[in-house]
Every structure is written in structure tokens, then in C-alpha cells.
Batch of 3 targets.
Target 1
Amino acid sequence: MKIQKIDKELSAILKIIIDSEASLEILVSQIHGDYRQSAKNLCRYLLLRSFDLRKYQDSLSDLGVSSLRTAEGYVLSNLYNVVKNLKLIQGIPFENNLNLEIIGYKKSKWLVKKHANMLFSQSHKKHFTEIMVTLPNEAAEDAQIVREMVQNGMQIARINLSHGNMDIWMKMVQIIRDISEEINQKVKIYIDLSGPKIRTSKIEIRNKKNKIKDRISIRVGEHILLTKKTTLGKSSSFGKNDEQLEMAEVGISIPEIIDDLKIGDQVLFDDGMIRSHVIAKNEEDVELVLTNCYKLKLGSHKGINLPNTKLRLPSLTKQDIEFLPFVCKHADMLGYSFVRTREDVSNLYKQLNTIAAIDMGIVFKIENQEAFENLPQILLEGMTRNKIGVMIARGDLAVEIGFERISEVQNEILWICEAGHIPVIWATQVLENLAKTGIPTRAEISDAAQGAQAECVMLNKGDYINDAIKVLKNILVKMKEHSSKKKNASRSLKIAKTAINQLLGNNFTLPVQAKTP
């Protein structure tokens, strides 16, 4: 690609970003002072990634000019310097008249570390990436479990309110505090709110031998009813020619979900192992047809994912609100499950303000498709406070968006968070085989190494969890010597275009760009 063409097109993109400054000033007016520059940079990044930049990258590298692959944390400075250098190479005079607030490369790295230290209450260490570990319920009765985790490298203890009870959680908190005092080292506490858990209801069916079963047999092509009605479940019946005579029936833990489902929506059960879609509905039931059954039985209390459904369900349940005072009293960070929109963020902040929890660290768990699609808006609303982070909850997220897309999506989340200088927690199945069996797979070692891009990596419990902590610590120390974040080709991002249209409104229109051949 000729240098004149690159110069012309990148100069036009730079002008668009500069001309948007007045709109960005209004947009970030309510942002916390610690995040105002970062919020601007995030918006500039969304503008930049609304364009397909791939066609410029190789030519810029051939010219010895910094490519735009490294632009996440310092967008305006990077693009401005690229355009300036292109003009200097051509011998074209360049007026240095940029009077806008900008962030350079060094400052962008400093801001990420500053924000991570505010969230994690931690000063810079040899390996900057924190290690978080989920505590098993047994840790409430055995302080040695927690002590060994801390000795091997755990810096943040995670308590999941989806499991256990107040007595167990309080014992865990006390043990963590005692060990922190014992070793004279702060062990942070992260507590997850449960959020609305959409699951199948209890299944209890008597078979011909009068034994109670807690699951029903299923097959591809079978029709089943998902119902609001109180039911202990029912199996389908089939005729001599294998035709379905009667539909199975399964209840749902949150009945109002039925109202939000539409014909054609996907309904996924048991971590996506059973896949279906809606073919009919009435006020009480939806009729589903099973399209994939990687398991041949559907059991009680199995998770349900609804990737295509716009839910009107509040992200904060009554129980979450009841637990907020406990969480804010004892935790350094609160994990916000099931967040989907910026309104969800606003709602949480209002609840925290009512109990004067103004200094609580908040981690937004990105675990469903709607949250991913609304990520920029969630972050900008989140930035009205200054102690925030994001967890890439890859389990539910992979179920909703499809396993083949999880690598792409987790990278997009990393880029967008880096643009906002927001610390990230890399979670779900990290070194899982090692933690559970004592033997790691090659793939999970590579995955853990990729987690070094984040500011924190989370491990789940297992019999060999201390081996996993030690291995992860060694990986993080070594990887930080080799790389900082990850750079990729820069095609336009749908999430960026959508966010810009929503944030800057109808008065702002991106020009049409020629497609990359």
C-alpha cells in the first residue's frame, strides 16, 4: 500500500477522533477523576476500532513506523505519532498543534498498574499478576488449608456465596484474617454475589420399580415443555414406532423467564451439553425441540443459558441485596454476577450508596452474551467509581457465545479493558486438570501463560490446588519477563461500532470505509 494512501486514510481517522473531543468531554463528565483520562481513551479506542486497520499494518512495519496493533492503552498518542512520522518520511511539514489531553505508552502502563493496585490494595511485586483461589467449604473448619494456599502464592481468597451458608463464610473470613495477622501479609478477600441462577427445578420421578429418579432421559428431536407450573418433572412417552406420544415436562427456578423467551430462542441446559430452541409458547409453558444431546439425561438443578433472550430479570436478587452489608463489611472486592447492562451497574451502585459502601472494589463478571455486547457501556458506568475490574468468566460465556468463539471474545475483552486501563481477572478452568488430578495438560499450561496478560488469574478448588498455585506462580513470573499484553491484527469490531452509535448518538456518523481485500 502506498505511503500517500496510508497517510491520507489514517489522517482522516485521526481527524475524526480529534473532532469527537467535545462529545467525549460531555460523555466523561460524570466519570470518577481517577478514571476520566482512561474513559476518554476507551472512547477513542472504540472510534479507532470501528475501522478495519489490517490493511495498514504490514506497510507500516515495512516503513519502520509503529503499527496500530499497540494502540489500546494510548490511542490518540499512538495514531498521532504514526501520522506525524508518515509525513516526515515524505518530507511533508507537520505542525505539532495537538492541544488535547493525551496518554503516552508509559503512562498507559502506569495507569493500569495504578488501577489494579487500587482494586487489589497491593503495591507492585515481582510478578504483577495476582493469584486468586476459590476456597472449598472445608476451609471453614481447617485453617491449614488456607495457610498452605497463602504460603504457595495465593494473594486473594475467593468466597462464593452460591455455595455454603453464612456460618461457613464467616468462619472463612475469620481464618483469612487470622492468617494475615500471623504472617504479617494482607490476604485480600473477594466475595461473589450469586445473582439470579436460572436452573431446572427439582426432578423427582418414580420408575416402574418404584425408585425415585432425579433426571429424565432425553434424545435429539424430542419435544419437551419448560414450564412455570410447580412440577417434579415428567418423562416423554413414545409409541411402538418411536413416535412421541407425550412431552416431557421440566420446571424452571425463575418462572418469569418463560415470559421473556421468544420462538426461535436458544435454550441450553447443563453447561450447553443439551441444546434446544423454542418452537411454541403460551403464558405458562414454552415448547422446546432438542437439537443436540451430548448427555442423554437432564437432571435436577442444572444450569440454563439463554444466549438469544433479552431478559428483564434484575441482576441483583433480593438475597444479593440482603447479603450486601455482610460482603461490604468483610470483603475487599465484590464480584457482580449476571451483570448485563449499564443500568445493572447503576442499580448496584445505588444499593451500595444506601449502606455507605463507597470504597468497595467491584468486579464485573462478564459471563453472558449480553454483557459482552454491552461491555463498553458497562465499563463507562462502572468508571463513576474508581475501584473496578472485570472478570472474564469463561465458563458460562463460552456456553452462550459458542466454544469456537471464546478465544476471540476473551481477547476482545482484554483489548477493551486495556483501553480503559481496567484490571482483568482471567477465570474458569485455569490449570483445572492439575488442580483436580495432579497432572496438567499441555493446553492448560499454555492457557495459564496467556493469563499473564491479565492482572489476576483465578484458580478453582481441587485436591492438588497447592501444586496448581505453585505452577501458576512460576508461569506468571517467567511470562512477565517475556511479554506485556498481546497484540493482534486489527479488524473492525462490531462491539466498537455499536458502542459508538449508542454513546455518541445520532449526531455522530462514521464514514464508510472500503473493505480490506
Target 2
Amino acid sequence: MTDLRDAAQNARAWPFEAARAILDRVGGTVPDKGYVLFETGYGPSGLPHIGTFGEVARTTMVRRAFELLSDIPTRLLCFSDDMDGLRKVPDNVPNPDALRAHLQRPLSDVPDPFGEYESFGAHNNARLCAFLDRFGFDYEFISATEFYRSGRFDPVLRRAAERYDDLMAVMLKSLREERRQSYSIFLPISPQTGRVLYVPIRHVDPVAATVTFDDEDGTETTLPVTGGHVKLQWKPDFGARWAALDVDFEMYGKEHAPNTAIYDRICAILGGRPPEHYTYELFLDEAGEKISKSRGNGLSMEDWLRYAATDSLAYFMYQKPKTAKRMSFDVIPRAVDEYHQQLRAYPAQDAEKRLANPVWHVHGGAPPESRMVVPFAMLLNLASVSGARDKDALWGFIRRYAPDASPATHPDLDAAAGFAVRYFNDFVLPGRVFRPPDEAERAAMADLAERLKDHAGSHDPEALQAIVYAVGRDHGFEPLRDWFRALYEVLLGASQGPRFGGFIALYGVDETVALIGRALDGGLARD
């Protein structure tokens, strides 16, 4: 622990850089509230998506880095703005027409279209919490509805009424002229319709802490700003929340970056000290468009977990947070194999390299041992050539390659075998195309089959890889990658694939010879 803490002082991994900034913010001492507070925000207007998970995962990585640097206690809050009005009906929910009558009502007052919870906001909050719990995050959940209606937010809301003019001055500078005419930091909730109203405020009483406005039917109405009768517009709400909770760190997507100065100023006017911030790049779908909760484009958390374990998702989130990432299904196999490569490297690394290894951050300093003796990409290819319909079929090959392995002793490999079969059938099989070999490739593959049949030496991957290399060189393939591409396209129906010697060792020498025979006879291309 001492070696790691010493190394952490100068660790260059981005969570440590952020953590050192937080430590400087609190002056290296315990804040008056008794802990350093990390916060993440969630807008439950749609189903939780993979970017939401990424924000909590990355914030947790910073928190764990901070805890290695310092003994100051920490807390992580996940704050859901479920008091926001339902602005539009999401595309990816059942019975969307039933929601139209509830537009502009707080999400916590909108019926759950799935019929499972007391409200749509509660449904989406539960989905978020269930996933975070499954991953094992240490967090506390706060509902904006509870925060407003319980009175926990009241002191800051009263202060907002007292300092209304100062807050409005900040906001009006950022608005177009036509928007300024009707803008107020306060959004009253109609006592008649229950909707969040974007209406001009006639009067704010700083002493009574009330707002006066015309309700939807034109009735002049006065409401207290406390007790959940009024909510703040989202930008003032952001900064007010920082002030109310005394937040020390929050990260958010780059779409918020232009508003950071506004959030900070709002927080300061309301008596708070702005936290350290960290801005990350956005997640993009396969077409390069921003992932949207309401549209449901791009990968969902459930999608990733259908094809890979959660640790590989956290690994993906760690990588280069300030670089935009395309979230498509084809990133999953690579993330799985890279994650396990880092796990295997970790035990032999010194303290400095361990803190630079993503798995330290994924697992909070205690990464497990990798038992993935067969890469995920290899399992995909094995599923392809064997026609495996379930993971038990793959284990017949895995045991030959690794006799000591079993589902009980290698649970990560067992899970990956099941994921590989599922991924193969959903994504690889529909687009798989075998091509016939040209004459030079045909001669080389026939030679490879003969050499494999005659090979009496070791069947370990390196020995078999040497045979594959030798055949490619002897048949004049230059560069040699053209030889391997031919093997992949002719035998596996893909443009790229595994280290071929390892594939032969896993699939079997006799089976590979038979596979080459089928390809040369045209059987694979006919399939």
C-alpha cells in the first residue's frame, strides 16, 4: 500500500490527475461536512443508457484514486432529476399514446408505461439503480422529487428567492432576446394541472420566498418556492445543487462545457463553492451520431451485458474519456480481449505500472486473476467453424487445448464461451461470407493440410504457428499478412481472425485439416 500511495503522487493516469485536483481543492484536510462528495447527475427522461453507466463508472475511478492519495472519507451521490417535466414521449416505450396526456408533468408524476412502478421516473430510476447495484458501485441515490418535496432543498431555494435578481442577471446574459422576455429561474408547478410551467413570473417575494404567476387558465397564483411547489430551470438547478450539497467533484459530457461558468456562478451566488469538474467526450452510435436516451440509438447497458461481462464495459469506459467513442457491437470482442490482456499483465508490474493499468481503476485496486486461457476472438472463430449452438459444445474443444480448465475453475472463460456463441449467432453468422481460394492460395492451403497431417511434433500454438508461417513464406506470400487474410476469408468467412496456430491447437489438427479440405472442395463457400 505504501509503494502504491507513493507512486500515486505522480501517477499520470487521468483518474489520479483529477483526484489530485480535488485534494488541492480541500487543502489536503477533511472538509467541514466530514467527507469529500462526488456527484453524478441523471436525467430519467428515457431508459438508462450506456453513457449514464460510464459517468458513474468514471466518477468511481476518480474516487478510488482519491482514496489511495488520501485518508479523507468520501461519498458518491447519484442524483436523478425526476422532477423534470416530460418534454416528449420517448420512442422506445410501450403504449406511447398513453403518455401524451402527461406531457410537461414531472416524471415522478407520469404513470409508468411499463406498468411496473408508481411512475415513469421511478421506473427509470429503478433501472439505473438495478444496473449500478449489479456492478457493485458504492453510491447513494437521491431523487430530485424527494429532494424538493422533503424540504432538503428549501434553504437554497429561499436563498434563490432572496438573490433572484443576481441569479437572473447571470442567466439573462446567456439567453437570446426573445427568450429573456419570459425567462425565470423558477418553474412553478400548476396546482390545477400538475404540469411544470414555463411562464413569466409576475413577482418574486424575497422575504416570503414566494412566486406569483398566471396559471394555465389565467388565474393569478402565488406559490412558495419551497416544498416542491416550484423547481429550478436546469442550469440554475445544476449550480444550486452543488451549493446545497457542497459537491466537491462532478464530471459531465462536453455538451455541458459551455455552461460550466454559469453553473459555477450560480453556485457561488447561492453561497457555495464550485466543485472540481471533468468534461468527457460524447458516445456516438454506429452512424457517428450522439447516443440519445429518448431515441434509444446505440448500445444499451443490457446490449453489452448480453454479449460480455460488466468488467469489460468498465474497461472500455476507462479508455481516453476525452476522446469521442463509437458505441457499436463490434467494439465488444476487442474490449473483452484487451481487458484480459491487462489482467494477465498486472501481477508482474511494479507499483507505477499498476496504477497506469486500466484494471487497477476498473477494480478499485484489487483486480482478479484472469482465467481466460482462450481469447474471446478465438472463441468466436471456434463457434463459427464448429457450428456450436451452446457453450457446452465449445468446452469440448477448450478442454483439449487446456486440459485443466473447467467451468468451475475458469468461470470467466465459461461465461465468455456462452457470450461468444450468442454474439456469433447474432452478429457474425448473418454476415459471414466464405470465398473460394485463388490458385496460389489453393496450393498453399493444400500444402498446409499435408504438413499438418505429417506433423509429429508438439501441438502447442507456437509450433503450429511456425508451420503456418513456413507455408506462407514457401509459397511466396509478401507480405505474410496476405496469407493470413486468405486463411481467414477462405476458412473462417471473415477478413480478420485469431493467431492461426492457436486456432489450430484449439480446434484440433485433424479438424483443421478437414476444414481445409471442405474449403478446397467448395463446401464452405456453398454453405
Target 3
Amino acid sequence: MTDLRDFASHANAWPFAEARAVLKHLKEETPEKGYVLFETGYGPSGLPHIGTFGEVARTSMVRHAFSLLTDIPTRLFAFSDDMDGLRKVPVNIPNKEMVAEHLGKPLTKIPDPFGTHESFGHHNNARLKSFLDEFGFEYEFKSSSECYAAGEFDDVLLKVLEKYEAVINVILPTLGAERQATYSPFLPVCPDTGIVLQVPILERDVDAGTIVYENEAGKKVETPVTGGACKLQWKADWAMRWAALDVDYEMCGKDLTDSVNLSSKICRILGGNPPAGFIYELFLDDKGEKISKSKGNGLAVEEWLRYAPPESLALFMYQKPKTAKRLYFDVVPKNVDEYFSHLGKFQEQEPKDKLNNPAWHIHAGHPPEGNVPLSFNVLLNLASVCNTEDKSVIWHFISRYSPDASPESSPKLDHLVEYAVNYFRDFVKPAKQYRAPSADERVALEDLRQSLEALPDDAKAEDIQTQVYEIGKRGAFKDLRAWFQALYEILLGQSQGPRMGSFIALYGIDETIALIDKVLAGDSLAAE
């Protein structure tokens, strides 16, 4: 453990860099509360999404890295801002008309449109917990509504009232003239309608802990700022939460950079210490545009998990969090193969190198043993050349290539086959476009056929690859890349493909020769 801790203090992986920053932020001392608090936030006006997964996954990685650096206890709060007033009806829920009648109310006071829980907020909170539990995250759930109502925030809410002028002076310069005239950090909850009101505050009584506002009927109403009678505006609320819970680490997306700066200033005004954390880049869709819940562009967690194991999604979140990345279907195969590559290397690595392996962070320091004998890309191309959505057809080729493998003995590989079939059906098959070979390409294909025919049936993938490589070098191609692209487009109907030696060894030399014969005879492979 001592050696690992020493290695961790120098590890290059970004979760260790973040963990060291947290330790420095704490001056290497245990906080007065007795533990280090990591927090993630969730806005339950919608269902959990891929950004929610990413934030909890990344924060968990930092937390586990921190636990190797020090013996200071840690906790992770998954905080739901469920007291927020609903501003618009989500597009992906039933009973929209019913929900529309309750706009402006806290999410935990709106009837559940799904009819399964006591409120819309409770429904989405349950979905969040189920979502996080499915991935095995270790966390404690926190509800804004419950914290406000239980008085957990009361002391700091009274501090906001006391420091009212200082707090609004942080926010006012960021607002337009009209909004400045009505802004208040306090949002009283109307006792008659239950709506979270955005109204000017007419009077404040610090000693009594109350504010006065004018309701829609023009009547002055005095209400306490404590006990859930009021909620805070977003930036003040974030700062208050940091101070009240004594949050030590929280990350967020680049779009909240200004909010972090403003909330940090308010947190200090309230006597708190803003948490450490880093700002990650946002995800982009296939057109390079920012992913938006309202647009519905990009890729959902459920969609990713139709085509790949959850560990591959965790790898996507691990890699370069400060770089904007395209989150679309075409990134899935690469992340699957890279995950299994990292996993395969892990057991053979030195302890200090294991800490920089993404598999260590994906599996909280305990990656499982075992690997898969075939890459996801090879399985995809096998499905493609066989033009099949039948797992048994693919397993026929796999068992011949790797006799010891079977769906029962290799469940990981069997899952990959299922993912590959789904991906082939939805993306590869509709996009396949075969072309006929040019005169020079026909010569090279005939050369390849003869070379394959001369090889023994049990020829190794490397030996086959050497033959393919040599044919490309002596063929009339400007470079080897053009030769391999020709093979992909002519034999597989796509512009990219696998390492041909490995693929031919898997598909079979005789079967590949038969495929080439059809092409040379002028038959269309599109009908295969």
C-alpha cells in the first residue's frame, strides 16, 4: 500500500492529478466534519442522461484516486435540485397537459405524469437512483426539497439574509437593467398556490429571519427564509449548498464557468470555502454542435448500451475530459476495442503503470481478469461480410478460429457478438455500398487469390497479413492505404475495415477466395 501511495503521488492520470489538488485544497488535513465530501448535481426536470453518467463516473474516479493517496474518509453526494420550480413541460413525458397545470411549482409538488410516485420530482429521483445503481456507483442521495424542509440549510439561509446586499452585488452586474430592478436571491414559495415566485423583496428582517414580498393579489406577505418557505436562485443556491454541506469537490461543464466564479464569491461571503474541482468540456454531436437535451441530438446512455458494454462508456468519459469530444454512434466501436485493450494490458503491467491505465479508474482499482480473443471491429466486419443478424452464424466462424471459445465459456465475447449484431443492423447494413474493382484492382485481387490458395488452411493471421501487404506493395497503388481501402470497399462495402490478416484468418481462407471469385466474376456482393 505504501508503494502504491507513493506511485499515486506521481501518477500522470488526470484523476490522480485532481485528487492531489483536492488534498492540497484541504492542506492535507481531515476536514472538521470528519470526511471529504465529493458532490455531483442533477436537475430532475428531465430523466437522467449521459451527462449525468459522465459527471458521477468522473467524480467517482477522482474519489477513488483520492482514497489511494490518503486515509481521510470520503463521501459522495448525488444532489437533486428537486425544489426548483418547473419552467416548461418536458417533451418526453406522458400527461403533458396535466403537468402544464402545475408549472412554477417545485418538482416534488407536481403530480407524477407517469403515475408511479408521489410527485414528478420523486419519480425522476427514483430514476436517478436506479440509473446510478445500475452502474454500481457508490453514493448517497440528497434531495433539495428534503434539505430545505428539514432545516439543513437554515443557518446558511439566515446568513444569506444577513449578507443580502453583498450577495446581490455579486449577481447584479451580470444582469440586464430590467432584471436588476427585481432580482432577489430568495424565491418565496407561495402558501396559496405552491408556486416558486420570482418577485422583488420589499422588506427584510434579519433578526426575525423573514422577508416581505407582494403576491399576485397585491397583498404584502411576510415569510421566513427558513424551513422550506423560500428557495434560493440558482447561483446563490449552489453557493449556499457548498457552504451548508461543506462540499470539498465538485466538477461541472464548461457552460457553467461563470456560475462557478459567481457562486464561489458568494460562498466566501457566506463564510464557506468553495470546493476544488475542474471544468470539463462539453460533448458535441456528429455535426460538431453542442449536445442539448431540448434538441435531442447526440447519443443517450440507453443507445450506447445497445451497442456496447458500460465500461466502454466509462472509458469515453475518462479520456481527455478537458477536450470537447463528439458523442455519436461512430465513436462506439473504437471505445469498445480500446477498453478491452487497456483491460488486456492491465494484469501484465507494473504496479506504478497500472495506476495510469484507464481500466484502474473504470473499475475503482480492481479491474476483472480476462480478455476477448477478437476485437469488436473484427466482429462487426464478420457480421458485415456474412451480412447476418444471426449470432449463431458469427459463432460458427468464431469457434473455428478459436475452438475453446463458446457463448457459455466466453460470456464477454458473446455479449460483444450481440452488440456487434445490433450495431451492424442499425448502422453498417443500411450504409453498405459495394463497388466493382478497377482494372489494376482486379489484377491485385487475382494475385491475392493465388497467394491465399497457396497458404495452408491453418495459416496464422500474421502470415496472411504479410501476403496481403506484399501484394499491395507490388500492385499499381499509390500507397498501401489505397490497397486496403480498395479491399474494404470491394469486399466489405465500406470505406474502413479490419486488419485483413486477422479477418481472413477468422472468416476463412476458402471463404475469402470464394468472395474474391464472385467479385472477379462480376457478381454483386450486395445481395449476399
